[in-house]
User: What shape does this take?
Amino acid sequence: MTWGPEILGTVQDLDYARRELGRRFVGRERAIELLQLAVVCREHALLLGATGTAKSALIAALARQIEASRFSYLLTRFTEPAELFGALDFGAFQQGTYRVLTERMLPQSELVFLDEVFQGSSAILNTLLTLLNERRFHNGAEVCRTPLVTLLGASNEIPEDPGLKAFADRFLLRLEVAPVGGNRLDDLLAVGWEHERERAEDLHPRHREEGARPARAAGDLSAVVSMRSLAALTRALFEVRLDEVLPVHHELVQELLVQGVELSDRRLVRSLKLVAGAALLRGADSATPADLWPLAHIWTDPADRAVVEQSVHAAVERHGGAGRERVAGAAELLADARAIADPLLERPPANDDVIIAVLRQLNELRNDLTLHHHQDGTALHELSRIIASVNGLLP
Assistant: This one.
């Protein structure tokens, strides 16, 4: 079986959008792939990370790829349900019927983005729980089907509150987003400056002649894919052949469960849809072990993230998939830091430029340590101590 021109055309459009977004968001290539996969598979995704890592901007830019009704909101402890689901219909209420006006609100939206998604009240999160899983919204006595395709969430971390566990489990895909400034500073500054220029132009547009239409900018991502095309792509998921990958998938899942990784039955079943989506997004009609890569992002407990990622990447490589760049261990990064800093500490140079150059290298190592070994507090503390010692050499 080969895909028809509509499916292949949509795949090519999404590939174009992925490349354009990759140029605009430095170091966020995997996040872009995962968010696109979530939309195609009609699953929900969660980006985790500190503020200032462009999570919200990336999700907003991706949402503009699709010609869909959108809704976005920043949740706080004080957010009222009416701010998301709609205000009370007073006319109906006076007639004895309770319902809310959902027009242009979350229940009538196809793509939803909620920033600080775990900050909502129990009333909001309980309503979202049903809406996410069943695509249904209880509006008074009426149960309404919703057009929701995907809810994309952002948060600093997954809360430890057991009461939020069921809600958090609805986000099948998770990715921890770390700052990239230390590793790709020049790229970050160049792209970021262009973003600021575009924002300034939006806030203070140049005067145009009345009636003149702005030209479409190169790389414009607005409405790259229609909802009709996206729906056809989602239906095609279930035509992807999985025979070749099922034994490897079974072996990998068993390995993760034996290691004590927490994965609900829901996550395991839906992970097959992600594998089919990965194959589909590269234009293939049959999945291979190389398409198992999304499983590296279905962990539930952040403490399991490293184990899941290592097991999935090892399985992909073991069965002929593309290898990933080797990540240095925490001890190796510390050894590199000592090798750089010790000569300087033993015999301080007269030139401050040498010290500054070494500090730059040490900070890049700290960024790598934070990105790949953030759970190793001892290593992070030791590297910070080394950096402070070198910094003390400056006048």
